[in-house]
């Protein structure tokens, strides 16, 4: 956030945060997988997309909204612990952003896909890591969940992130981005 | 089948029960502060009696705020199967990791000790307490009050250049747009269904199929959201909204004695809860 929060950043963060909340309350953000964690999730995707589009600050805020909403909606004791539900989610957008920036000059599509993958992985690894530390799961179970939930999550994340961001970037220069003065604020 | 499309009906975000009780009338800043203190205390507390005490406090809060208990219980109901599965797993496999305590039963990797039993019971109780507590908070505070309270509470962070007002605005936008997007999503699901797509009818074990079913909803949803964001950006900039400019407030909060009392009470409760040694 070199220039602080612009109107654009505020609005994008709010809108993508709304999607994170919506996916949570309608249960559409959950992919039912029969494992210990109950469900795989796609709710980290708004945070990933926010991170790619508007930088790590926006990604972090969306992650926070996702974390708080999953904390409030949780049906599993694991996510009723703010340390597990909120803290790890802050980093989803940040790692996604860093991955995107790092690979941007190699290939746009590769960078977007990789950011989606790394963002999902951040969520999986940090949440399960904290779950083990806080004593909700033994390590073996967490490792199984990482494979059974983490992999489908990462794949879905790559597909959706690519589809949304690639479509948006392509159209962005030619009129989807309505405001012409956003850069000046 | 039709019920699956009624997204807007199921959204209980900002569900608010106006009973005008003492808890409802508390200053949201103090209410949020007290809530945060209690949540932290519950997260740390791992004794039986301490958790029983916390549970009693939660039930008392329902009483004081005149909110029927079934609002809290309805939050727990869908979670019961998860709690049971998790409890069994913790009970069977956690004995070795939870050091200390007497081991009652051991067979291969299965080991049950007094510590693993404590873990199971305490985490189940903790879960119920947090649900009760957050139900009381959200049912007794409107979303506007919550965001205003949060903005004021975070106020001091402005000194270290944290954009508090912008942050509160983001939360407000997010909450404002949830019902709008729910409506959009409902429309898209109906549009897809009218073309022959089916949602949620696949068997649960066909995970790949069920995941694929979601793409035609999720991707357009993001696109709709982003184009709405563009409209909002344009509208805000057209009205000369400046992030970080100083602005006055519509609502002013003034702390009364009862607000301080609530804060002190939450600290006392937390100290008692953590002080109980069993």
Automatic annotation (TrEMBL), chain A:
Cross-referenced Gene3D superfamilies: 1.10.1760.20
Domain of life of the organism encoding this protein: Bacteria
GO MF assignments: transmembrane transporter activity
Keyword annotations: Membrane, Transmembrane, Transmembrane helix
UniProt-listed InterPro entries: ECF_trnsprt_substrate-spec
One Pfam short name: ECF_trnsprt
Positions of transmembrane segments: 12-33, 45-71, 83-103, 110-133, 139-168
Protein name in UniProt: Membrane protein
